[in-house]
Design a protein that fits this description.
single chain, 340 residues, alpha+beta, Jelly Rolls, Phage tail protein beta-alpha-beta fold, 3 domains, 13-stranded mixed sheet, three-stranded mixed sheet
């Protein structure tokens, strides 16, 4: 569907969207309600477009041509680049938006709305058991895992590098030909700088280690305290690098990437995965404390595919497997379990 690739300006130009905002009926309400439910990542763009359209006053009189030109001249003076403003305003006029706002007032509203539409949220946070899809202004996308934070450089258009800072876990699909900003894209963690051009990779930085798993493309790693090019390490698809914070040692292994990226689909795929790693997911993703009474349990291999969106379902699946080994999971309130 064409709306999947729309930004706020595209929605403002769309006749069907304008009709829904200005003259809603059961048909249009049902369509947009269902579409937004299927495309929650577009809520910000839709809200911005609605705000702009509703900020205008509507009646049966079309704004006179000379007033339109006056507005364009004012916008041109303010921005020194009337190309986008002109196309947007004439698109609105072409779609028969009826305006009665005074020319100067409309010019201010229009310019302020454009400013609002082009703002890029600089910080994204998820709570326990929450996963968030993020569309960046350069066309790249990020899936932010639970209990994580992503900070974005606020003005990529004026900077030489597209930079983000991650605490927690995220899966990146980086656009090699960005709509806005420089070609260089860097993910910063407390221990590593991950430089990419166009690729898909997973970064997890929690506790005393940071791991990077490359699904496709290539990236370069460098430790935070080192800037020398000779210290940069180039990753290949299918590799996992792990940096231990305490020792600063960087270890490389070949992996099946789906084991480290399946969380983006709300599932966890395990192939002889030690129980200790599943406990990490329970604690870090869902905020539930896990007490293990026998340290030997941590090495128990677990296999299978588990739904991870609901912590109760995830824990119950593990409980069924452990029960076959005569191991119990005992719940202590809503935020603690004991494995014994």
């Amino acid at each position: 569907m064409k709306y999947n690739n729309y930004n706020s300006e595209d929605f403002i130009k769309d006749e069907f969207f304008i009709h829904w905002v200005t003259q809603p009926n059961q048909k249009t309400n049902e369509f947009w309600s269902n579409w937004l439910a299927e495309n929650p990542e577009k809520e910000t763009q839709v809200a911005a477009a609605k705000t702009f359209i509703l900020s205008l006053d509507f009646n049966e009189e079309v704004l006179p041509e000379e007033n339109v030109q006056t507005i364009l001249n004012e916008i041109h003076k303010a921005t020194k680049d009337s190309k986008n403003s002109t196309s947007l305003l004439f698109s609105i006029k072409k779609n028969w938006i009826k305006l009665t706002v005074a020319a100067a007032t409309l010019g201010i509203l229009f310019f302020a709305s454009l400013y609002f539409l082009n703002q890029n949220p600089s910080n994204f946070t998820t709570t326990y058991s929450e996963r968030k899809n993020i569309s960046l202004v350069d066309g790249s996308t990020v899936i932010l895992n639970a209990n994580s934070n992503l900070k974005i450089s606020e003005n990529w258009e004026k900077e030489k590098t597209r930079e983000v800072w991650l605490e927690g876990e995220a899966f990146f699909s980086v656009n090699s030909k960005p709509k806005k900003g420089a070609n260089k894209f860097v993910v910063h963690t407390k221990d590593l700088n991950i430089e990419v051009l166009g690729t898909k990779f997973n970064v997890k930085t929690r506790g005393d280690k940071t791991t990077v798993v490359l699904k496709e493309g290539s990236v370069q790693l460098s430790k935070v305290q080192l800037d020398n090019n000779s210290d940069k390490i180039k990753m290949q698809a299918g590799e996992k690098f792990t940096l231990q914070t305490a020792t600063k040692s960087l270890d490389k292994t070949k992996v099946e990437t789906k084991l480290f990226t399946s969380w983006t689909d709300g599932i966890i795929i395990c192939e002889e995965t030690p129980l200790s790693e599943l406990i990490e997911i329970i604690e870090e993703t869902h905020g539930i404390d896990v007490i293990v009474e026998n340290s030997d349990f941590l090495k128990i291999p677990i296999g299978g595919t588990f739904v991870n969106d609901d912590p109760e379902v995830f824990i119950k699946s593990i409980e069924i497997i452990l029960a076959k080994k005569k191991i119990k999971i005992v719940r202590k309130g809503s935020n603690k379990i004991i494995i014994r």
